[in-house]
């Protein structure tokens, strides 16, 4: 969809105001999201974490790990930035999303019925992006997320936060893939915790026997 075809900004919105759509109430159509590398927030260059990445539908259709529950909608949140701060916020977002994303302007459809769509700015990944992971085995992905951490914290906290956000946006916005991943990571955390308890109990028992 070209810029001239996009819905205009709502009436009464000052010129220069920035509407930025962030994947996480409302719908961005024409794009899908997948998990991509994260070297700077939920991982490191040596051990990248995984974060949700918007991609165009045409790219998504070429992937081989589709889920039966996948819909043609991406749920998210749009933030309206006052014109006085738009340039500053745009500069910050450009730096934050610099690692392989391009800026797209896309229609945003509020979940509230009767509210007209409006144009938003979104950062979209491409398969040429070095941070693009491509198809991934779900269990291997869960194990990678379980192990990864970065300056912004453990990768698992990001995943669980995404799950909570999607569940709370709308009765329709929950994602079975994210829930499945979250449950797999929880199982890994539980198994590790149980193994640690057993190891401590064994160490205590051995110490008592000496």
From TrEMBL:
Signal peptide: none annotated. Keywords: Lyase. GO terms for biological process: glutathione catabolic process. GO terms for molecular function: gamma-glutamylcyclotransferase activity; glutathione specific gamma-glutamylcyclotransferase activity. The keyword Ribonucleoprotein does not apply. Its EC number is 4.3.2.7. One of its GO terms (cellular component) is cytoplasm. PANTHER family: CATION TRANSPORT PROTEIN CHAC-RELATED, GLUTATHIONE-SPECIFIC GAMMA-GLUTAMYLCYCLOTRANSFERASE 2. This is glutathione-specific gamma-glutamylcyclotransferase.
């Amino acid at each position: 969809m070209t810029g001239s075809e996009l819905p205009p900004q709502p009436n009464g919105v000052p010129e220069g105001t920035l509407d930025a759509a962030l994947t996480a109430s409302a719908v961005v159509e024409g794009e899908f999201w997948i998990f991509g590398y994260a070297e700077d927030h939920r991982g490191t260059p040596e051990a990248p974490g995984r974060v949700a990445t918007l991609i165009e539908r045409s790219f998504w259709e070429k992937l081989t790990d589709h889920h039966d529950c996948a819909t043609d909608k991406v749920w998210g949140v749009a933030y309206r930035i006052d014109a006085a701060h738009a340039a500053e916020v745009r500069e910050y977002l450009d730096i934050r999303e610099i690692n392989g994303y391009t800026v797209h302007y896309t229609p945003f459809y509020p979940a509230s019925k009767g509210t007209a769509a409006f144009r938003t700015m979104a950062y979209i990944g491409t398969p040429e992006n070095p941070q693009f992971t491509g198809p991934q085995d779900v269990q291997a992905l869960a194990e990678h997320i379980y192990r990864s951490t970065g300056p912004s914290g453990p990768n698992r906290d990001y995943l669980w936060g995404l799950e909570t956000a999607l569940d709370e946006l709308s009765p329709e916005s929950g994602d079975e893939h994210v829930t499945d991943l979250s449950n797999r990571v929880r199982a890994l955390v539980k198994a590790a915790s149980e193994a640690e308890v057993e190891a401590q109990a064994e160490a205590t028992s051995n110490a008592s026997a000496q």
